Amino acid sequence: MSQRRGGAPKETAVAKEEMMPFSEVLDTPSGGLKMNREEEEIAPLDPVPQKKPSAPTAPLSLDSRYEAEAQTLKLKHWKEGPFAAAMTESTWEEEYTKYRSNPRAACMDMDDAMPCMCCSAFVCGYLGAARVGNMAVLRQSTEWVEEIEEDENGESKTTRFTRPRLDVIVGPYWPMLCCVTYPLILGVSALTLFTAIPGKHPLIILFWTVCTVGLIYALAMTAFRDPGILPRYVKPPAQSDNGGW
Asked: What's the pTM?
């Protein structure tokens, strides 16, 4: 559309760009074009965090080194032991070292779950008894064992090896057996023998004798025999016919 003659030109919404010489246009880095928005500032990269020098570690004392070495030996003995027992000191002599300085205070500080451990440390260490967990081994022997294993091809083969057998063993509460149970049985039996048995019929005396000796023998076979400690296996053994082991 044509404008009226003599009328003022209308202002447009977009401002006109100023005319620049061609030589100045080439000299400008943006080619003479003006940006309608502000240029974004590039934030400098964060510097790489430097590690603070660690404080020098203090050398271990003799007691700390001894405890660390003892713990390592205890763990090794537990892993290489022939029986599946708890991780304890390997011998009763090593257990006795805990009570050597102050036996009374050490026995008073014992855990309530094992109050007779101090007695085992003193007596079993003096007798030279072996140790399996918290049980004292008074006599052991060696036995031959045959086990059936399956190889990689699924074929069964028989392996024959030796392992220790626990012949005479007592539990951790053997002081109660020796100081309470047996004295109670022997005391009552002796009292009966000297007060009630004299003058009775021989058959009654024989019956009482058999029952008393049988009671003492049955208690001994229960208290001094292997309660069923399982041998340690590196890998699960082959299942038996009943599916258990």
From this structure: 0.62
**Model confidence pLDDT, tens digit, residues 50-94:** 655 555 555 667 767 767 877 888 888 888 888 888 888 888 888
Contacts of 160 (CB under 8 A, 6+ apart): 144, 145, 146
Contact 167, 175 (CB under 8 A): no
Through-space distance between the first and last CA atoms of the chain, rounded to whole angstroms = 106
Over residues 215-229, the mean pLDDT reads 93
Q: 113, 130 in Cβ contact below 8 A?
A: no
CA contacts within 13 A on the Cβ side of 149: 13
Separation CA 156–CA 148 (nearest Å): 6
Which of these, 114, 137, 113, lies nearest to 125 by C-alpha position? 137
The torsion defined by the Cα of 43, 47, 48 and 50, in degrees rounded to 10, comes to -150
166 C-beta neighbours (distance < 10 Å), count: 18
Q: Which of 46-60, 100-114, 202-216 has the lowest mean pLDDT?
A: 46-60
Give which of 161, 137, 135 is closest to 148, Cα–Cα.
161
